[in-house]
Amino acid sequence: MADVPGGIENAVIRPEAEAGRAQAQASASAEQEARFYDEAGRQYALQQNRQAMGWLGKFWGSGGASTNIAGLVAFVALAIYVASMVFSPPDASNIRSGMLALATAALGYIFGSSKKGD
Predict the structure, then answer these.
(1) 3-class DSSP state for residue 90?
(2) Which among 19, 23, 97, 105 counts the fewest CB atoms within 10 Å?
(3) Nearest to residue 63, comparing CAs of 49, 45, 79?
């Protein structure tokens, strides 16, 4: 781009320089445009909801972080319970009872909070 003598304010604008670029007329009606923006708004809200819920929220719902944490605790406790059944000696009943109690408490919180609407 060449420098303009005297500064940019002295540049000459030539309308024919962009004559090959025609302005495209919209072929959509106002109703079609309104439907398009409504659908785009719904898609945006859906995407925001998915991002807010996260990966665990897909399973437990949109109860928030506390529900997601309780779900994760329930999952881990049940996994430890099953692992203790498979890999531990029979005298590991304290581990099993503790993990089962923790898992049922977490599940009780999840399903109890969904009924309250919290």
Answers:
(1) coil
(2) 23
(3) 49
